[in-house]
Write a structure and sequence with these properties.
Number of helices: 23
CATH class of the largest domain: Alpha Beta
Number of strands: 21
CATH architecture of the largest domain: 3-Layer(aba) Sandwich
Shape: elongated
Number of domains: 3
Strand content: 5-15%
Oligomer: single chain
Distance between the termini: 111 Å
C-alpha cells in the first residue's frame, strides 16, 4: 500500500499541469508548425507570401502564455514572430494566412505586412497593433497597463481588477529605447505589466552578447528595483508552464511588473530569406535538439495522450490549415481605390481605441464664439480649456515632463494637478518615446490622453511612436485607432536656438493620420484644442511660444461649448490686391505688413487638413499669392500651398507665387541674428509691394 502511494505521488508530480488545456496546446502547436511549413514549402516559393517569419522553436511557450490571458481587460502586444500567441487568443486561421498573403480582410485588408499582427478579439484579450520597428511595442503596452491602473484607481472600475498587459520581445529588442523606457515606466509606477522576452541568442545574425552584457537580460536585471525577474527554459513544457503561471500570478496580484526570460531556439532563419550561414553546424544541431515539439510529445504521451491521440491531433491541425488555405486563397485583393479610406475617422467606428468606443458622446457644441469677460492670453485660454474638459470628462488625463507641481515650463498646466490630483495630471520620466508611446496604449484602452512634449525639437525621439500612432487606423483597416491630443510648444520666443525654437510643422503633416493645429490666438486655441479633446483622431496641437503671452493673440474666452472645426481658415483682413497665406506667429506680422494694402490675409489655423478652397478662392480673386511662414523654405509647408495654387489657379495669376520664410538654417540664438532670419514686418511689406507692383 505504501509503495502504491509513492507511485501515485510520483505520477502526480510528473503529470501535466492541470491548469493548462494541454490538448489545446498540442493542437495549436501543430497548427503553428503546419502554417509555417505551408508558407515555407508552398506559399513563399509561389510568391503568394512575400514576408515570412517562422515561429518554430518560439511557438510552444507563446501558446502557453496566451492561455494565461483569460481576463477580458488583458491585452498583449507582440512582434513579427508572435503568431502562435494570436492562435492561442483565437485568431481565425484564414485571417492568419490571408493576411500573410495580403488578401482582403484579415489584419489589414492587404495594407500591411502579414506578420504585423493585430486582433480585436471579441471573445477575450485583444492583440494590440504591433509595429514593424523592433522595440516599438513596449511603451504602448506600458500605456495599456497604466490605463488599467487608471481605471482601477481613478475611475474605480472593478472590471479592471487583476487585468494585465503583456508585451513580447526578443533578446535583440532589449537594447531598444522603447524597452528601457517601458521598464522605467512600469517599475516607477508599479504597473500591471509582464515583459515576455524570448531569447534565441540572435538578432538576425548579431549575437545577444551585442545587445546586453553577457547575453542574459534577466541576470542583468536581477537587482532592478520594483521588478520580479524570472528566467527559464521555454522548450521544457513543465518548466515553461510553471514559470508563466508564477509570472502572471505576480502581476495579477498587483505586486508590480514582472519580466520573464525564456530561452528558445530559432529553428529557421530570421526570415525565409535568411540562410543562417553565420551559425555553425554545431549550433544548428544543438538548436534542433531543443525543439519544443518532441519535448511536448514526451511530456504528454503516456500521461495524458496516447500515440494515436497525438497523431490524430496532428492530422486535425493539418486539415484545419489546409481548409484555411483554401478560404484565404479564395479571397480577392482589396479594391485599390479603398487604400484611400481610413486615414482619418470617417463614418464607421473602429473596433478598439478611443473614448468613443467606450460610450463617450461629445457634448453639444457651437462654432460661433460667445465671448466672456476680458481678453486673456493663449496660456490662460489653453489652461482654461484643459481645466473644463478635465472637469466634464473623467477620461481626460494630462502628463509630460514638469507639468505637475511646476505647472509646465510654459505654465500652461499651472494648478491643474492641485485641482485634479496626481492620478490625472502627472509628471513623467525624461523619455519622449515613453510619453507618446504610453499615450498610444492609454488611447487604445479608451482614455483621452493629453501628453506634452516640452519643446518641438524634443519630439524627435518620439517620431517612431508618432508615425505608428498616425498610421494605426489605416494599417489595421479601421480595427484600431489611438485618438489623443499631443501638445507641442515650439518656435522662437524673444530669442532662438537650435534646440528650443524649432517649428518644422511640416514633419507632422507628413505623418499620415495626424490632424495638425497651429493656432495664432487664444480664441482659436480654445476651439481647436476642444475639437481634438472631443474628437476621434490623433491631433498635434502646436503652441507657438511667441504667441503664448503675446498681446495681439489675446482674445476673450469664447465659451465652454466653442469647438472650431479643422480645415477652416480665418480671414484676418480682406482686400483685392493680394492674398497672403500664413499661420502661427507670422499672422500678426502679416496683418501689420498689409495695413496699407488691400489684402486678403488668411490664417490657415490648421495644416492638416488645410483650407485649400479658401486659399484658391482668394487667389482667383486677387490674382497674387504670398505665403509667409517661420519654418525653413526648402520643403516647408509653403511649398505645398504654392504647388496647389500653381496647379489649380495658374491661369488666374498675374504674378509668380512667392514664399517668404526663414533661410534653411537652424534658429539663431542672438536676437539680432534671429530677427534677421525670421520674416519681419518690413521684409513682408517689401515682398507685398514687389508682388503688387509686378
Amino acid at each position: 500500500m505504501g509503495h502504491d502511494l509513492v507511485t501515485e505521488r510520483r505520477v502526480k508530480l510528473n503529470s501535466p499541469d492541470p491548469d493548462y488545456d494541454w490538448r489545446q496546446v498540442a493542437y495549436l502547436l501543430h497548427v503553428s508548425r503546419a502554417l509555417d511549413r505551408l508558407e515555407e514549402t508552398r506559399l513563399v516559393p509561389e510568391k503568394k507570401v512575400l514576408y515570412q517569419f517562422s515561429a518554430r522553436g518560439h511557438d510552444m511557450a507563446q501558446i502557453l502564455l496566451g492561455t494565461r490571458l483569460s481576463h477580458k481587460k488583458d491585452a498583449a502586444c507582440g512582434y513579427y514572430r508572435s503568431r502562435p500567441l494570436l492562435l492561442s487568443l483565437g485568431v481565425p486561421l484564414e485571417d492568419a494566412l490571408g493576411s500573410a498573403m495580403g488578401r482582403a480582410g484579415g489584419y489589414s485588408d492587404g495594407r500591411d505586412i502579414g506578420v504585423v499582427f493585430n486582433y480585436p478579439n471579441p471573445h477575450g484579450a485583444p492583440a494590440l497593433p504591433m509595429c514593424g520597428g523592433v522595440g516599438a511595442q513596449y511603451t504602448p503596452t506600458a500605456g495599456w497597463a497604466q490605463a488599467i491602473e487608471y481605471y482601477r484607481s481613478v475611475l474605480k472600475d472593478p472590471a479592471y481588477d487583476e487585468a494585465l498587459a503583456v508585451v513580447l520581445g526578443g533578446d535583440g529588442s532589449v537594447a531598444a529605447n522603447g524597452f528601457w523606457s517601458a521598464l522605467t515606466i512600469a517599475t516607477t509606477q508599479k504597473l500591471p505589466m509582464l515583459f515576455y522576452i524570448e531569447d534565441n541568442e540572435y538578432g538576425i545574425s548579431v549575437p545577444s552578447t551585442y545587445q546586453t552584457p553577457g547575453g542574459n537580460i534577466a541576470r542583468n536585471l536581477a537587482s532592478f528595483s520594483g521588478l520580479e525577474v524570472i528566467s527559464g527554459d521555454g522548450t521544457d513544457p513543465a518548466d515553461a508552464a510553471r514559470l508563466l503561471t508564477r509570472a502572471v500570478a505576480h502581476v495579477r496580484a498587483r505586486k508590480g511588473p514582472a519580466l520573464i526570460r525564456l530561452t528558445v531556439p530559432r529553428l529557421q532563419g530570421h526570415s525565409f530569406q535568411d540562410t543562417q550561414t553565420y551559425k555553425s553546424k554545431k549550433v544548428v544541431d544543438a538548436e534542433e535538439a531543443r525543439d519544443p515539439l518532441p519535448k511536448l510529445k514526451s511530456y504528454l504521451v503516456g500521461s495524458l495522450l496516447s500515440e494515436d491521440e497525438w497523431a490524430a491531433i496532428g492530422r486535425e491541425a493539418e486539415e484545419a490549415v489546409e481548409k484555411a488555405r483554401a478560404i484565404a486563397e479564395a479571397r480577392g485583393v482589396a479594391d485599390p481605390t479603398t487604400v484611400l479610406d481610413n486615414v482619418f475617422y470617417e463614418d464607421e467606428m473602429q473596433a478598439i481605441g478611443g473614448q468613443w468606443t467606450h460610450g463617450y458622446a461629445p457634448p453639444a457644441s457651437t462654432d460661433a464664439p460667445q465671448p466672456e469677460g476680458q481678453r486673456i492670453n493663449m496660456v490662460t485660454a489653453i489652461r482654461r480649456t484643459l481645466d473644463h474638459e478635465l472637469e466634464v470628462n473623467p477620461r481626460v488625463l494630462l502628463f509630460g515632463e514638469d507639468i505637475g507641481p511646476k505647472g509646465g515650463v510654459h505654465a500652461v498646466t499651472l494648478g491643474l494637478q492641485d485641482k485634479f490630483g496626481a492620478g490625472r495630471v502627472f509628471d513623467t520620466s525624461l523619455s519622449e518615446e515613453g510619453i507618446v508611446g504610453r499615450a498610444v496604449g492609454m488611447a487604445l484602452a479608451g482614455l483621452m490622453p493629453v501628453p506634452e512634449i516640452q519643446f518641438r525639437k524634443y519630439a524627435e525621439p518620439a517620431m517612431e511612436q508618432i508615425n505608428d500612432c498616425g498610421t494605426m487606423r489605416w494599417r489595421t483597416h479601421n480595427r484600431f485607432a489611438a485618438p489623443m491630443v499631443l501638445r507641442i510648444p515650439g518656435g522662437f520666443f524673444k530669442c532662438g536656438d537650435p534646440w528650443h525654437s524649432q517649428t518644422n510643422e511640416v514633419q507632422f503633416v507628413h505623418n499620415p493620420g495626424w490632424k495638425v493645429a497651429v493656432p495664432s490666438n487664444a480664441e482659436d486655441a480654445v476651439g481647436l484644442l476642444r475639437a481634438g479633446l472631443r474628437g476621434n483622431d490623433p491631433v498635434i496641437f502646436f503652441e507657438h511660444r511667441a504667441m503664448l503671452d503675446d498681446s495681439w493673440a489675446r482674445r476673450p474666452y469664447p465659451g465652454d461649448d466653442y469647438v472650431l472645426p479643422f480645415g477652416r481658415a480665418r480671414m484676418v483682413s480682406e482686400g483685392d490686391a493680394i492674398t497672403i497665406v500664413t499661420w502661427g506667429a507670422m499672422v500678426p506680422r502679416c496683418e501689420a505688413a498689409a495695413k496699407e494694402v488691400s489684402a486678403d490675409v488668411i490664417d490657415l489655423r490648421t495644416l492638416m487638413p488645410w483650407d485649400r478652397e479658401a486659399v484658391l478662392e482668394s487667389v482667383r480673386r486677387t490674382r497674387r499669392c504670398l505665403i509667409v511662414h517661420e519654418d525653413l523654405q526648402t520643403a516647408g509647408f509653403g511649398a505645398e500651398i504654392a504647388a496647389v495654387v500653381a496647379d489649380e489657379a495658374f491661369l488666374d495669376l498675374d504674378a509668380p507665387v512667392t514664399r517668404l520664410t526663414m533661410p534653411d538654417i537652424p534658429s539663431p540664438h542672438n536676437p539680432v541674428l534671429l530677427n534677421w532670419a525670421v520674416p519681419s514686418v518690413e521684409r513682408i511689406r517689401a515682398k507685398i509691394d514687389e508682388l503688387v507692383g509686378f
